[in-house]
Amino acid sequence: MSLYSKKYGADAPNYDPYEELANAIVAQAARDYMSALRKGYKGHYAQVTLERFFRSTHFRHLTNVDPEYLIARLREEAKKR
Question: What is the pTM of this model?
Fold first, then answer.
């Protein structure tokens, strides 16, 4: 359950459980991609698979985020850590 739905309830205006689910899917994919980047070669298959997901039509249905921008930002963030 999200903080929004905890605070305002599922009946609150502007609450869209499908949008919340889409955001959760994208956020989890980003966390998994970061983890794969940190693993280096051991995470290579996951990196390739997640990059394919980020560039897919399915991803574009979930969010308006530019996939190339997201991949670049996640790579930058992984280098910092």
Answer: 0.80
